[in-house]
Design brief:
One of its GO terms (cellular component) is plasma membrane. Keywords: Cell membrane, Membrane, Transmembrane, Transmembrane helix, Transport. This is Sugar ABC transporter permease. Its main location: membrane. With about 300 residues, the chain is an all-alpha fold. The protein has one domain: MetI-like (MetI-like fold, Orthogonal Bundle), CATH 1.10.3720.10. The protein is built from 13 helices and two strands, in the order H-E-E-H-H-H-H-H-H-H-H-H-H-H-H. A hairpin with a 5-residue loop joins strand 1 and strand 2. The longest helix has about 40 residues.
Length: about 300
């Protein structure tokens, strides 16, 4: 019994040793800034070190600010459209590159490559390609008689264009996540299903998706967080929130308030609301899916 107890102690110490760097990093770079943002939301800050406690004034202003609600609406549309598309495209590519065919390793690398390139560089390249009349895409479309499209200048097309570029940028990363989950499913299950006469659709529905549930949960959660809190660099380079604020996400609105208008207290209040939304949504998703275990344990 003493030997088991000693081994458990060593395992616990080892676990704490490996978890300590992440715990310290999350505390210093995530938890403390989040708490600081909540505190700063109750102050008026002019950017020159002057603080003035104003209570809930920033939050009252937020409720009455039409630009805040406009950005919240754009963010919601961006979230509802982009997350399912990332999920479907990532899973589809993973199913494709899971197959054994010539140069599959090269294809995997090519699909993942955009994710490791700087977002600013990617955005500048796409901005050049999408430029009205002189861009590569506009030139190609003009060859087949499609003229007058302004992908970044038309409020009806700008947000969809940003979504398409974001999918192109991130699909390789989520493809790798799904591929890891697919390769973790024992092949014996598929072999037994084939023997029983199950079709490819039935195998996907009855084997792949249930056993891929934890991966699905991880992808949905991380992509949701990435969509809501990320995208600032791409929006800044491609559209700067325009045209007519049609691509002004909340994260870009926070940037404007903090660094363009110098209203740091109000920006902190908006940021606090955004983080609160993420926490509530993440907790609800976790409870609804039981951490990715959609089916009963039995």
């Amino acid at each position: 019994m003493s030997a088991i107890t000693s081994r458990e102690r060593r395992e616990r110490r080892a676990a704490l040793f490996f978890l300590a760097p992440d715990a310290i990093g999350l505390t210093v770079f995530v938890a403390i800034p989040m708490l600081l943002s909540v505190v700063l939301g109750f102050f008026w800050i002019d950017g020159f070190g002057n603080f003035d406690f104003i209570g809930l004034d920033n939050y009252v202003r937020m409720v009455k600010d039409p630009q805040f609600w406009s950005s919240a609406k754009v963010t919601l549309i961006y979230l509802v459209v982009l997350v399912p598309l990332i999920f479907v495209v990532g899973l589809g590519l993973a199913l494709l590159v899971q197959q054994k065919f010539p140069a599959v390793g090269v294809i995997r690398s090519a699909l993942f490559l955009p994710y490791v390139i700087s977002i600013v560089v990617v955005s500048m390249v796409w901005q050049f390609m999408l430029t009205d009349r002189t861009g590569v895409i506009a030139t190609l479309l003009s060859k087949i008689g499609i003229d007058g499209l302004s992908f970044l200048g038309d409020p009806k097309l700008a947000l969809g264009t940003v979504i398409a570029v974001t999918i192109w940028l991130q699909m390789g990363y989520y493809m790798i996540i799904f591929l890891a989950g697919l390769q973790d499913i024992p092949t014996e299950y598929y072999e037994a299903a084939r023997i029983d006469g199950a079709s490819a659709r039935q195998r996907f529905r009855r084997i792949t998706m249930p056993l891929l549930a934890p991966t699905n949960f991880f992808v949905l959660l991380t992509s949701m967080v990435a969509v809501v809190t990320g995208g600032l660099d791409m929006i800044f380079v491609l559209t700067s929130g325009g045209p007519a604020n049609s691509t002004s996400l909340l994260i870009f609105y926070i940037y404007q308030q903090a660094f363009l208008f110098g209203d740091l207290g109000y920006a902190a209040a908006v940021g606090s609301v955004l983080v609160l939304f993420l926490l509530i949504f993440s907790a609800a998703m976790f409870l609804a899916t039981r951490g990715g275990r959609f089916s009963n344990d039995d």
